Amino acid sequence: DAKTTQPNSMESNEEEPVHLPCNHSTISGTDYIHWYRQLPSQGPEYVIHGLTSNVNNRMASLAIAEDRKSSTLILHRATLRDAAVYYCILKNSGAGSYQLTFGKGTKLSVIP
Amino acid sequence: EPEVTQTPSHQVTQMGQEVILRCVPISNHLYFYWYRQILGQKVEFLVSFYNNEISEKSEIFDDQFSVERPDGSNFTLKIRSTKLEDSAMYFCASRGGGQPQHFGDGTRLSIL
User: Fold this and answer.
1) What is the Cα–Cα distance from B18 to A23, expressed in whole angstroms?
2) B104 Cβ contact list (under 8 Å, min separation 6)
3) C-alpha dihedral (B78, B66, A47, A40), degrees to nearest 10
4) Contact residues, chain B to chain A, C-beta under 8 Å
5) Stronger pLDDT, B1 or B17, i.e. the higher one
6) Pairing relation of β-strands B19-24 and B5-7?
7) Nearest-CA residue of chain B relative to A37?
């Protein structure tokens, strides 16, 4: 799987939008961009994924650059519960078992 | 919303003893996984399981490890003779076809 690069940490004020960047310059045409997060003392949690077009769901939005070499996870209004480590993971659609390769992610702190 | 459940939440075992970690995946899911996370480190893939057999395993998953789906609902990870370095959080995950992985909240394994 292609490599991703994320900042080690970010801070946000509560109730403000958060933009979490991810660079993936070696992404291939069939790689999906997945975001998971891990709250303290919990297992990873699926957030969102996309291929080319921007995606929205109840948790977040995913903005994908036109060249697909970067993407941004957008939390529209950060809450204290959003404090977590956020992982950007590429997954080839043709891969068999779909194991996930986690990096170090971005640790998001939310300030009340 | 359906959840992946793991038991026990914390397991303390003497070095050299066998340990079985249990998981109940989401009921209509077909693909099952174990991951581990040593304190302060990344989440690491151990093994994936589909159609009653291992589909992929990592280098960590050596002969001391085994997995089983004994009764169509549980999915277990057995460590035959535990070592100090097996101390970690162990996460079970499951997914349906073409769906993201859903993780449990993990079992903390402490080897004394």
Assistant:
1) 42
2) A43, B3, B4, B5, B6, B23, B91, B92, B93
3) 30
4) 4, 31, 33, 35, 42-45, 48, 50, 55-56, 58, 91, 93, 95, 100-106
5) B17
6) antiparallel
7) B103
A13: tokens are 């004020």
Q: From CA B52, how far away is CA B3, in angstroms rounded?
A: 21
Question: Look-up: residue for tokens 């078992």?
Answer: A97
Q: Which residues of B touch A103 (CB under 8 A)?
A: 42
**Contact: A96, B95; criterion CB under 8 Å:** no
Cβ–Cβ below 8 Å for A98 and B101? yes
Q: Which amino acid is at B27?
A: S
Whole-number percent of chain A with pLDDT over 90: 85
What pLDDT shows up at residue A99? 87
Each residue's pLDDT tens digit, A13-61 = 999 999 999 999 999 888 999 999 999 999 999 999 999 999 999 999 9
- The span from the CA of A20 to the CA of A67, in Å, is 18
Regarding beta strands B31-37 and B88-95, do their DSSP bridges make them parallel or antiparallel, or are they unpaired? antiparallel
